Amino acid sequence: MTATIRLYNTLTRAKGPLRTERPDRVTLYVCGPTVYNFAHIGNARPAVVFDVLARLLRHDYPEVVYARNFTDVDDKINAAALEAGVPIGAITERYIEAYHQDMQALDVLPPDIEPRVTAHIPDIVDLIETLITRGHAYEAQGHVLFDVASYPEYGALSGRRPEDMLAGARVEVAPYKRSPLDFVLWKPSTPEMPGWQSPWGRGRPGWHVECTAMIGQHLGHTIDIHGGGQDLIFPHHENEVAQGTCAHGALYCHTWVHNSFITVEGQKMSKSLGNVLLVRDLLSQAPGEAIRFALLATHYRHPLDWNPRRLAQARQTLARWYRRLAAVTGDEQGEKESLAPDAEVLEALRDDLNVPRVISRLHELSSAIGDAASAEDARLAAQRLRASAALVGLLQQPAASALNALRELPDQASPPRLPASRVEVLVAERHQARQQRDFAQADALRQTLEAAGVVLHDTPQGTQWQFADEVAV
Fold first, then answer.
1. What would the DSSP string read from start to end of 152-168?
2. pLDDT-wise least confident of 10-19, 66-75, 208-217, 464-473
3. Which of 114, 288, 378, 407 has the CA that lies 20 to 30 A from 43?
């Protein structure tokens, strides 16, 4: 029997057991990047988060079909191609290749399917024709629009009521719309723009209809999990629900999973502030594994603030773990699958991807190597650590080469040191939270301590600690 995975469902606003159309198969679709530039850290977070989810699903289910798309036609792509004087394909191919390189550096495993919008224009046209036939879309001045009023449940995913949205709507800029809420399924293209022939003339698809068509083509009319960033809930995913439900008369998706935002040192990322952090630039500061660790250290549904201290702490923790692995005779990368993952790690992941709790457990598994009574026990403890960390994509390199990479890159800003008296108070509070089985609070306190450069060692006699800069790498 498959173990129960519980995920927070945006649609129900609650955590509940994963429901699948088939007991032995899971379908997962995640909105991928619009490829007109290099991937930034905000693009990397959903890729890493849903890579962890896919790893867990593959551990628990015999069959997983994971699709993550590329949006390779878009007004920003069109503008970049026009400025460069090249076809849109020249722009998109460059950045798709760059995205693959960046994600590989973060050890994000390839999805099973990577559909591109431009390869699915006939599917998009078919979907639009179905919506028109069923009375949920209409043609107006070369455009085809979805008729929001034809779908009474519109707004259920985002929690927005259509009447409230109408009350706050600005003056309508498109007079051919029946309602300001109606959204574009197809729009005309001028001669210099990319376009495809359709029953409504030469044009290109609207953004929202693209994912619905690709899902229908590859995963079916009802999927198990749909993922993406929190910023996509409205209007993109809300509009997907409307299109898919109205076209096929079936539930569009069982569980909606959204990761929260990233800020940079307390500020929203933006070009105007000059704080957009590209993955490839960060890779000159730290190995991809450290960037991945830093992205996972905060629960996916919580906002994540990126700063040098976060990356420095990720490097220090990884170095400490790899150092423990390097000290074990007979620990080889290839042996990581010889033991099953730790039960507490699996339990934490099945509880809405509680990776902070996983990290807490990995610290304990690392400590178990040093506490082992024999060389054989230490070897088994090392294998258990590797097998458990594999579920979140960590500790899969040979220890020696990983430590060399962590040493060779430039040092980052050291975390600010807390007074020892304050550390003692926080350690005691964490101990009390663990006794009360308040793991969320215990994990939050561990993160606070680690961000301040404190290394914790949980032992049967209690928690020992020291400052990270006192631990030799």
1. TTTTTTTT--HHHHHHT
2. 464-473
3. 407
Q: Does 170 have pLDDT greater than 80?
A: no
DSSP assigned state of 99: H
Question: If pLDDT is split at 50, 70 and 90, which confidence band does 445 have?
Answer: confident
Q: Quick one: CA dihedral 400, 402, 405, 411, positive or negative?
A: negative
| pLDDT band, residue 19 (cuts 50/70/90) | very high
Gap between the Cα atoms of 219 and 161, Å rounded? 29
Pairing of strands 262-264, 304-306: parallel
Burial of 114 (0-12, 13-18, 19+ CB in 10 A): middle
pLDDT for res 414: 52
The answer to whether the CB of 166 falls within 8 A of the CB of 181 is yes
CA 158, 292, 283: angle at the middle one, nearest 5? Answer: 120
Q: How far apart are alpha carbons 349 and 360 in whole angstroms?
A: 12
Question: What's the confidence (pLDDT) of residue 471?
Answer: 44
Specify whether the backbone of 107 is left (phi greater than 0), alpha (psi in -120 to 50) or beta.
Answer: left
d(CA 300, CA 353): 8
Query: Would you state the structure tokens that stand for residue 216, as one six-digit string?
Result: 């229908």
> Taking each helix axis from N to C terminus, what angle separates 88-105 and 41-60, rounded to the nearest 10 degrees?
60
Identify the CA nearest to 390 among candidates 121, 52, 164.
52
Q: Containing H/E element for 425?
A: helix 420-435
HSE-up of residue 9 (Cα within 13 Å, Cβ side): 16
Q: Give the pair of three-digit tokens for residue 187.
A: 């729009």
What would the DSSP string read from start to end of 336-380?
Answer: TTSSPPPHHHHHHHHBT--HHHHHHHHHHHHHHHHT-SSHHHHHH
- Alpha-carbon distance 349 to 366, whole Å? 18
Q: If pLDDT is split at 50, 70 and 90, which confidence band does 451 have?
A: low
Question: In sequence order, what are the residues at sequence separation of 6 or more whose Cβ sits closer than 8 angstroms to the Cβ of residue 88?
Answer: 72, 73, 77, 78, 81, 194
Query: Whole-angstrom Cα distance, residue 473 to residue 271?
Result: 37
For residue 18, list its beta bridge partners: none
Tell me which residue of 392, 389, 412 sits closest to 324, measured CA to CA.
389
Alpha carbon separation from 350 to 54, 188, 226, 245, 300 (Å, rounded)? 12, 46, 17, 29, 14
Q: What is the DSSP pairing of strand 253-259 with strand 223-229?
A: parallel
Q: What are phi and psi of 464, to 5 degrees?
A: -100, 155
Per the CB < 8 A criterion, the answer to whether 361 and 342 are in contact is: yes
